[in-house]
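Example (one chain per record):
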Amino acid sequence: MFYYLSKVFWFFGQPINLAIFLLLAGLLAALFRRRRLAATGSVLGIAILVLSAWTSVGAMILNPLEERFPKPPLPEKLDGIVVLGGGFEGAINLARGGYELNSGGDRMVETAILARRFPQAKIVVSGGNGSLFLDGEGDADTAPRLLGALGVSADRLILEDKSRNTYENAVFSRKLVEPKPGETWLLVTSAFHMPRAKALFDKAGFATIPWPVDYRTSGRRASASTATIPLIRCRRPPLRCANGSGFLPTGCPAGSISSFPDRAADRALPAAPPRRTGGAPAPPEAPASTSRTRPGRRTSRDNRSRRRRRAARR
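Predicted structure:
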């Protein structure tokens, strides 16, 4: 009974499904002129979509689960490996054969690597068809084809194909293996799934060493939304005067770009000469006078020239 209730709860509790149901409830409330209920359902549905698609809330929730059990050093002696199902596309493999992997396929790939490293260890593949509505092939039925293709012999495999959830993974695997005291077993599953899996295996009396794989987060606290891209500008005046904006045009010469150029250095650069429409080049500008004469004040040479002109008129 718990299995069916958990499946129904997760069907309605998934963010995308929950947002759709809230939007539909808001639409129905609007048809019956319940404006407050319609606005509440619509706002909540849109908020869930925005938080799920455009923020890192999902990664912030997964990261503490993935950091709960860091990957330990490998033991010198290993008796067996328990890998939990959830890494195959069951419906596709049932229809087409093969061993198509989904986003959790690292579980099976890591199991093959560990099996090659510990050639004497047994391998328990625990996972049946856990879908409530779709018919598919269980992971315990698909895993022998993939592991055999990766060089793991079939006589090392112990297949448990009846379990439908993590609790049944733990209970059925223990009954099938009957681990003895002092044996060392690795538990391989996704990092975010490891806290639940480890707790249920301990409850079932199956002592294991957690070996998390299939990480979904980088472990960094900074999100991608805080990253900034610096504006690229040109240092040379001709490129800046080409479009008048100062930003990088097409094809900036090597060594002439800077993320944040010095504005004081840009003001110190000489201005580009003006262009003329005719063929002759523009005449050079006259050098600026170095005289310290104040504007509007005549020099002694100007006064002498003025007196000579007055004497000539007389």
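Caption: The radius of gyration is 38 Å.
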